[in-house]
Amino acid sequence: MNSRDITIILAVVLGVILLVPVLSMSIWGYGMMGPGMMGWGMMGGYGLLIVFLVLLGIVLLVLETVRRGSSGPDPLEILKQRLARGEVTREQYEEFKQLIQS
Q1: Nearest to 41 by CA among 55, 23, 20
Q2: CA 26 – CA 19 distance, rounded (Å)
Q3: Together in a domain, 65 and 27
């Protein structure tokens, strides 16, 4: 994970921390003084939709980050590169290739 990914994750987490109280007030219509004259809040019934979309965005961001981090270089490709650079002999290449494919 590079610094750009960490920055994005921190921005999303900070945004959620700041927005959840505001959104929860609009969902249930309760502010500091109770439901008040606005009934369900200024956002009407859209508060729940917004919270759902924010949570969906967080889940998608985490899944994308995990997907990027879990895929490493192909071991067979690394072995081919090492053979091309002369780091392993042809016999070692065949032996390692059998180990990787088994």
Answers
A1: 23
A2: 11
A3: yes
Q: What is the mean pLDDT of residues 76-101?
A: 91
- Sequence-distant (≥ 6) Cβ neighbours of residue 27 within 8 angstroms: 41, 47, 48, 51
Residues 44 and 83 both lie in one domain: no
Same-domain pairing of 48 and 81: no
CB 79 within 8 A of CB 91: no
pLDDT at residue 52 is higher than 60: yes
Q: What is the pTM of this model?
A: 0.36
Residues 45, 85 within the same domain: no
Domain extent, residue 102, equals 73-102
Q: Which long-range contacts (CB under 8 A, 24 or more apart) does 1-8 make?
A: 1/65, 1/68, 1/69, 5/65, 5/68, 8/61
Residue 24 shares a structural domain with residue 52:
yes
